[in-house]
Amino acid sequence: MKRVFGVKKEKEPPPSVGDASERINKRGETVDEKIKKLDIELNRYKEQIKKTRPGPAQEAVKSRAMRVLKQKRMYEGQRDMLYNQTFNLDQVAFASEGIKDAQQTMTALKSANKELKGMMKTVKIQDIDNLQDEMMDLMDVSNEIQETLGRSYNVPDDIDEEDLMGELDALEADMGLETEADGVPSYLQPDKESDLDAELHLPSAPIGHAAAPAGRSNAQAEDELGLPAVPRASLRG
């Protein structure tokens, strides 16, 4: 059967935009190489024309240069055409990629929308409101418990707040009188110490070694504490 009817040939896939653009770019590079070679040849002819005197020889060089220049113009036209084709293919490729991106974005949005709908089915506004109300009730109960546990014992209920404020003001006034300008309490002031010593009938503290008064011997001298001094001879032995 295959020999009679033959085998159906598979069609080759059409070239993609990238393949077509790559092929055209290679052709453009080939044309550019040809134009560069023609430019080198034109420069050589220009130098020959400058060095050759006017006459048949110069005209022959000019005709060759004109032929090369015509070829260059032809190749430049082909190169411009190839560049235009490449530009059009790039625009098509850009549009194609944009459409693909849009398709992927739409697919992602549909998937996210479906997932959100499934999640919203499990979350209800009424349940959230009820939960918030229960939390507020629990907080109120907790505050009442804390107030109950923090209640003071053995405190009379008939205390007047105005009386308490008056006592507080009087206490602050007394504290202000006891404090001097330098911030030192009155019980640390020197005059208070002297009054306290006078009340207790205590002698003042000696400042240094007091000299023995006139008329007393060394044996009758007093030490730093006001007691009779012990003679040195007795200490030796």
From TrEMBL:
| Superkingdom of origin organism | Eukaryota
Q: Name one GO biological process term.
A: late endosome to vacuole transport via multivesicular body sorting pathway
Q: Which residues form a coiled coil?
A: 99-148
Instruction: Give the compositionally biased regions (Basic and acidic residues).
Output: 20-30, 190-200
Write the signal peptide boundaries: none
Pfam families, per the entry: Snf7
* Record's keyword terms, sorted: Coiled coil
Could you tell me which Gene3D superfamilies the record lists for this protein?
Answer: 6.10.250.1710
List every stretch annotated Disordered: 1-30, 180-237
What Gene Ontology cellular component terms go with this record? Answer: multivesicular body
Similarity section: Belongs to the SNF7 family.
The name of this protein is: Charged multivesicular body protein 5
Which species does the entry assign this protein to? Prunus persica (Peach)
Lineage of origin:
Eukaryota, Viridiplantae, Streptophyta, Embryophyta, Tracheophyta
